[in-house]
Amino acid sequence: MGVGVIVNQIMVLFLLMGLGYGLARSKILDKSACDKLTWLLCYVVMPCLVFNAFQIPYSPELWHNFMLVGGLSFGIHMLFIVMSKLLLNGKALQQRGIAEQMQFTAVYSNCGFMGLPFVVALVGSNGAFYGSVYIAVNGIFVWTHGLLTHSGRLDRSALIKVVLNPNTLAAIVGCIFFVLSVHLPTALHDAIGHVGKMNTALAMILVGAAMAPVRIGRIWFSGMAWISVFMRNLLFPGVVLLALLALGISGDMLIVVTALSACPVAGMSVIFAQLTGKNTEFPVTSLTLSTIASLATLPLMLTLSTW
């Protein structure tokens, strides 16, 4: 069942990307439209998705698991950041202007679109809860470290903007609401949920639109992109699996955290390149190759975790 879910999610992803690609090639989606939709995605849709992940009933057991998964997720992202800095910060990469993009593609996975439906299909409600916590932590890192990695600015005004970013605020408020058992009125909750559900389709359409200027036949020969695929799909999640086993993590939590850390390159790698005015060819190439490779690597990591 797990492999079938992976294949299905990848097919959906590519169909949505294909729609965006076709719309851009036919000039229906031009640069101006893509820029506006990118803003809508990053500052309206994604905050709704992050906030809604915390709208669940509170209990002491859930709080314990929340803290444990949150701590593991935080540690995993810190480990990935350190590894990416050590392995992907050479002069050759800096000269080619892709060091920061390679670091981002190695650290951040497509845990929201591919990961959450996958772990829910595998372990049910536990997958939804653990996955939501992981995704929330991932969102905080994406909109702090990830954004600063692309912008290259660490000045005071940039840090203030990061702290006040709608995605960061949504995660903080959502966490407070969970702890205090504050639940929104049904109509408001459903409205936010509907907006958040736009995330997958809108993000993948924009990624597909960004692929329009890229020559698809050339992506198979990008050595740097294949290095990113190896880091994101195998090396980094492999280290996570060994660390989780060493810590005595088992059962559903082990499967969920391993699977989410082993998802392919995040679509935000392309979105951030667009937001910061950088070339999107490398992140698009890495995203495409990583997603294709995940047909084999994600079932492999899952099999190792179940052993």
Automatic annotation (TrEMBL):
Pfam families: Mem_trans. InterPro entries: Mem_transp_PIN-like, Na+/solute_symporter_sf. The keyword DNA repair does not apply. Keywords: Cell membrane, Membrane, Transmembrane, Transmembrane helix, Transport. GO terms for biological process: transmembrane transport. One of its GO terms (cellular component) is plasma membrane. It comes from the Bacteria. Its main location: membrane. Coiled coil: none annotated. Belongs to the auxin efflux carrier (TC 2.A.69) family. This is Transporter.
